[in-house]
Design brief:
mainly alpha; 6 helices; globular
Length: about 140
Amino acid sequence: AGLPLQTGLYASCAPLAVYCVFGTIRQVQPGPTALMSLLTGQALDQMGLLDDTSRVAGATLLALVVGVSSVLLSCMRFGFIVDFMSHSVMNAFCAAAGVTIGTSQLKHLLGIDMPRKKYWWQTAWHLVTHLNETEGYTIALGAT
């Protein structure tokens, strides 16, 4: 999401502590995930938040709004709506998430320094056109 590294560490520990008390399903992923990070980063980019302080404040506000919305929808027993989502829609979403996450991480695996791109195909094209900038040691470490 383009936030400072310590933000991810705090966001990993706090939900686990809360989930120990209130958690009911073991299949739930508490804490930050790659897809949530990408979606949050895209939302912060669209809001024009560029410096660390404003991005942290924007991410905090976004988390609070999503949390309050989730609690309100839960109180209204709105979870039944998931039953109307077809299996093919869920499969397509998971496949698209995998492609998006994979292309976003390739720059780190290849050791290519690049600016953030809005769409995954822009990231993929930038990586393909800058393959001559790959770092051999980075690839070797990432492949092991």
